[in-house]
Design brief:
About 20% of the residues lie in helices and about 30% in strands. The chain is an alpha/beta fold. It has 3 domains: about 180 residues, FAD/NAD(P)-binding domain (3-Layer(bba) Sandwich), CATH 3.50.50.60; about 110 residues, FAD/NAD(P)-binding domain, CATH 3.50.50; about 80 residues, FAD/NAD-linked reductase, C-terminal dimerisation domain (Enolase-like, domain 1, 2-Layer Sandwich). Helix 1 packs parallel to helix 7.
Length: about 425
């Protein structure tokens, strides 16, 4: 069997491993428009400032021998421009045709570029792949000031890393707080303080409408009329599913590629996984894109198993985000801000804990400072666990499995979560 995987990141490599668990002989080809093995996108801000390098294995998801060990042929530096489901082949940007019996689309997302004039100027960067990171890294020694557009995970981390290098950083965020879909106001305040302590200037509830300069960016103009002099801009507004090459095929899409419980598209020989798909969110009970690494890994694995006819269902997931800015770490999961649910919260110095509960089921949590027991709460959300008898202990600083009786820990948890 000929198996083609479009995309060389966490979903694709997990699919490879799942396939090879039971199928050692099928021809597997991985196509990627990048020239490198699968690497960690969340580490790109660290890479830019030199905290991690290409020489370090922790920058990559798998060891360099991964492809040879799993008998995978790679087609690197080439992009897919069109899929032909009826004829079962994909066409590359060099007009080469690659045939398949089963196809997995795991090409991730592409950066969202807001509507603003001047994005073509030199000194304007995104930070969604190694190529863009290389460009920013090569210019770093000449950058004295930088405007980061977008206060999400990548934007906030980039602002932190550049500020620590002595660069004058201004972070512009459209919403009223950084990390808007990830934290509530109280949780975001901790991050605001850390960024300000590092010298980052925050401009909230404003947006960039124009970048000015003759050839290279020199000034940023905001919707409020404010102007900021700068010699560099990083656009980190977020990503959307990369649907360009499937838009005129018969593959059904909405905001992302639509898949069933088996990560299969409307075409039975084509599967999709990772940031490019709309998959089931168990908290809000609907399908939507959730660009989260652990979910991409799980979806890729299930797609790989089903490509070799294992008939395994994807049970769904939910957003889980974590990051450290300055001295503050946080993890958030599920729904983090709503007036519709029961809310338990406590703020104590450098720690903040918040839990959202719907009909005695945990549907969301924020942990700032003390994040040790995040895995427990994640398990509760995933399993729709009845928390009616234990929720009153969630705010205790020593909360842990000791609050559960021994029989429950052994029989229900099988000791896998400690």
């Amino acid at each position: 069997m000929k198996i083609v995987i479009i995309g060389n990141s966490v979903a694709g490599i997990n699919a490879v491993e799942a396939i090879r668990e039971k199928d050692k002989i099928s021809d597997i080809r991985v196509i990627s428009d990048e020239q490198t093995r699968a690497y960690s996108h969340p580490l790109l801000p660290n890479f830019v400032v030199g905290d991690v390098s290409r020489a370090e294995e922790r920058f990559y998801y798998r060891h360099r021998a991964f492809y040879e060990k799993n008998n995978v042929k790679t087609i690197l530096g080439k992009s897919v421009v069109k899929v032909f489901p009826k004829n079962k082949y994909v066409q590359l940007n060099n007009e080469e045709k690659v045939e398949y019996d089963k196809l997995l689309i795991a090409c991730g997302g592409k950066p969202i570029i807001p509507k603003m004039q001047g994005v073509e100027l030199e000194g304007v960067h995104t930070l969604t792949n190694i190529k863009s990171a290389d460009r920013l890294k090569s210019e770093l020694s000449d950058i004295k000031s930088c405007v980061v557009v977008g206060g999400g995970l990548i934007g906030s981390k980039t602002a932190e890393k550049l500020a620590k290098k002595g660069i004058k950083v201004t972070l512009v965020e459209l919403m009223k707080r950084v990390l808007f879909p990830v934290l509530d106001d109280t949780g975001a305040d901790y991050i605001h303080k850390e960024l300000k302590n590092l010298g980052v200037k925050l401009i909230l509830e404003d947006s960039v409408v124009e970048l000015k300069g003759d050839k290279k960016v020199k000034e940023v103009v905001l919707s409020s009329g404010k102007k900021i002099e700068t010699d560099s801009v990083v656009v980190a507004v977020g990503v959307r599913p990369n649907l360009d090459f499937v838009s005129d095929s018969d593959i059904e899409t909405n905001k992302g590629i639509l898949v069933n419980d088996y990560m299969q598209t409307n075409i039975d020989t084509i599967y999709a996984a990772g940031d490019v798909v709309e998959a089931y969110d168990i908290v809000i009970a609907q399908k939507r894109p959730i660009p989260i690494l652990p979910l991409a890994a799980r979806q890729g694995r299930i797609a790989g198993l089903n490509i070799i006819d294992s008939n395994i269902k994807y049970k769904g997931g939910f957003p889980t985000n974590s990051i450290t800015i300055g001295k503050t770490s946080f993890i958030s999961m599920g729904i983090v801000d709503s007036d519709e649910f029961e809310v338990l919260q406590i703020q104590n110095g450098n720690e903040y804990r918040k839990f959202l509960i719907d009909d005695n089921k945990l549907v969301g949590a924020i942990l700032v400072g003390n994040i040790e027991k995040a895995g427990m709460f994640n398990w509760m959300i995933q399993n729709k666990f009845d928390v009616s008898w234990i929720k009153d202990t969630f705010l205790n600083s020593d909360f842990g499995w000791k609050y559960f009786n021994k029989a429950f820990r052994v029989l229900r948890l099988d000791r896998k979560i400690k």
